[in-house]
Amino acid sequence: MTQSLVTSAIPFGVERADQVDAKLKEFRPELFGKEGLVRSALRDQGVHFMSITVVRGEVGEPTHLVFEMSVDGEPQHAFDTVGSKLALFVSDILSVAAIQSTGSLSRLLASHHVRTGQGLFDVPGLDFCGTPGMTVARIKREYLLARELRSYFDAYPAAGAPLGTIARVRDFVKANADLAPLLDPEPFPRLAAEEAARLDFGFILSLAFRGLLTFFWPVLCLLGLSVIAATIVAGLSQGFAVGVIAFFLSIITATVAVLAVVVSVYLGLRRLEVANTPVDTLVNPDVMASLTDAENLKDTQQNHLAGISIMQAGLLRGLTLRIAFWVIGQMATRRFRPGFLGDISTIHYARWVRLPKTNKLLFFSNYGGSWESYLEDFITKASTGLTAAWSNTVGFPRTENLFFKGATDGDRFKRWARRQQQPTWFWYSAYPHLTTARIRTNAAIRQGLGMVSTEDEAAAWLGLFGSKVRPATLIETFEVQTLLYGGLSKHPYATCIAIQLSDDPMRACAWLKSIEDQITFGDQPPADKVLICALTADGLRRLGLPPDVQDAFPTAFRLGMGSPGRANLLADTGDDQSKQWLWGGPENAVDAALLIYADSEPVLASYAGELISGIDAAGGRVLHRVTPTPLPQPKPGETAVQTVREPFGFADGISQPIIKGTRRWMRQSDAIHAVEPGEFLLGYPDTRGFFPPSPQVPAAMDPGNLLPLTEPKYSRGALQPDFSTSGATAARDLGRNGTFLVIRQLAQYVDVFNDYLGDAAKRYADHPAVPDQLDPALLPEWIGAKMVGRWKDGSSLVRYPHGPATRKQNGGHFRPDNDFLPGAEDPLGERCPLGAHIRRSNPRDSLAPASKDELSIVNRHRILRVGRGFDASGANDPEEQKPGLLFMCLNADIERQFEFVQQTWAMAWQFHGLENEVDPITGRGGGMGRLTIPSPRGPLNLTGIKDFVRMRGGAYLFMPSRSAVRFLARLGSN
């Protein structure tokens, strides 16, 4: 429906102005409260807002009685409504003002209608509507619906699946004759407040060109005629060739003339801005008392502002005012979100208008909140627009280039604004208790109630009651398996069970369904036990996932860790090749892995036994089991990082990426380690702002509507959910809130490693690269530290090059340092060698010292390590009776993260300009490995590095979300 902002200005004698103001104030009790006569008369008449203001004229100018109205329909509807419903009240006001009318009140108002426009010869004006397309009737109906639903939830709180709650709410609404029609959503496409387009050079250029045509067309027409005349005269008198030359010369001359006109206007503007004298006097106390008396009325969430400013003299200021209104209007329609003025969303209706035949610029605004908050919003979010309009008036704070400074001088601007303001005694609002945000929310509640069809949409709809739309970057914690939030150090006992599922999809799905409620999600795990479940590509196939959906998963995941292509990439060759693995190879491929964590060994043993029995009963079997060594319990004041040691004796788990939005990020927002959720979770933006590819399924495969939508319009970039299109037939996102889990069982040759360090210490004891201040007893550990990049206590070589931190601090609760930048602090690698394990695994700024861009690039390849060490008995390895590491990591892109680290950094022979070197800890050099240890006195070339680690089994797995687990468990029945 058309909405109109209407202004009528009726002249009368200034000597009666005070009497008219007093009469307007008399009617104030009739404007508020259910029994107010004016309020009752305007109820259900399609009038959003109405005010009557006295605008006093200067010497030689009339004073005006200004009617400002915001109505549904055409302007005539406003005049007719006032003429028929408020005749008694308005006639009384007109009588006091001695305004005579020979016709009807409606005709009087229409005859003094101020029609505004943005053309060169229009009355300058600018209108703004904060709830476009929303009628008074609709706003009230949707408010009633939202109020009733809130009462419903007070009595019957939401419980169970969100879609089930929605179904119960719909039944409740259907049973109410007044509410039932609201189940049919009205279209409101502007509800989706998408991010505004940014300014760009093309838009600014087009704006300038259109502005030139709009305001300088008389000049352009004259110059155009001149060009035509010159061309014709020259052509007729001197011939065609001369005419063509004259045409182009005339065009050039006209262009220069246009530029000269524009420049002269600009220079004139700058002279006026320099000459303008800002007025910064305080507001008259009596006026201030009247203003505050007229604001913040009881039981209202709105206020009205009537500002009356005096225009600076001259035609040029009239032109710049028109230009300002036109630019703001273009921005509002082409760059601002509908219903928003820049980033301001609290305005219901506002209008600027130049009162004809006067020097007055009027500003009327109906807004939510207090005057102070309203002005602060303008100062911080839309100061350029305010400055552009009001800089044309007398006494405004000093501006530059029409749009700049001015309103940014907040305190002076607010004092100036108060001086322009006039108390509004006669002001009506159809819904004074509602803000624009609440109106939009109520519209979203109604829209969603009729359109929601999936669990994620239903959850977003329920969030409208006392919450906000979930931003695209905010993790849906309750959907993500607990392992993402850390290594579960408070559950020191753990085991990993690699299983093979039944060939019967029905039985395989039945098994998954039997454990779906036991899988742990969220960042607050139970105190006794935790279960994590992940599936390989073969496991998804056994569950009955169709081949076309399987193909949507990444190539690395589908091929599997044990495939020939991945083996070459990961350097899983020789005795590391998958044919020799205990599990995960071509002869013993796994379908799923269960990770069980417990607070005690009896709980772990009992729970693992239950799960294994369930696997056997469902026709599956356990292929392998690894039981990590229980974590040592930290002493008071210690953390797990300070106590956990991997089999070689080094502190482990120190350097980890910090995912934005998790509790760890909120506690420890270390910028060099902070990464976006999309680097580890599907369905979220990554560091570059893009959403990683995620496997999709057609809606027909998800009859229970369990999976989230692939394109969730209800959250991405919206300030209110958009339920305008049904998601019933839209594709579903199987990957959202899921991640990929890499597991590698690594046997570690601790005795070989220690023997090598001892032999190397003897061999290089007198080498000049060994620091003079190094304690000889520390030389073996120093060599090991150079290979790893840290001392055994976790302190970095970058910060502690000559000895572990705990040695200097005499023990204590040392927390391993992790905030260093090796590129900036140790660019030559003289402290931490360029080829050291930690520098290969996470180069930080090594490749471009102190570069934030380099850190951002490196963080795109980070992995979240969640592994644990095991002893020889826990390995369950008959061939290698060795301790080792159950390496596990999470990443959203196996190729870009885990495999990249392995291939491009850890196993790259020429990493960082080195030659024929691989990772000295995890590399497979076969006794030919080497590490260059730079020093000011020449490098120490550590040679003969043996193989310290052997690959014994592993897999690439998908760790699904809660919704995905429920969906996969029901594939058999679907």
Short overview:
With 974 residues, this protein is an alpha+beta fold. It is built from 34 helices and 26 strands.
What does this structure look like?
With 974 residues, the protein is an alpha+beta fold. The chain is built from 34 helices and 26 strands. A five-stranded mixed beta sheet has the order 4-5-7-8-6. Strands 20, 21, 22, 23 and 26 form a five-stranded antiparallel beta sheet that branches. Strands 1-3-2-11 form a four-stranded antiparallel beta sheet. β16, α25 and β17 form a beta-alpha-beta unit. α26 crosses α27. The two termini are 45 Å apart.
Structural category: alpha+beta
Main sheet: strands, sense, barrel: 5 strands, mixed
Which spans of ≥5 residues are poorly predicted at pLDDT below 50?
Answer: none
What is the alpha-carbon Rg in Å? 37 Å
In one word, what is the shape? elongated
The helix count comes to 34
Number of strands: 26
Main sheet strand line-up:
4-5-7-8-6
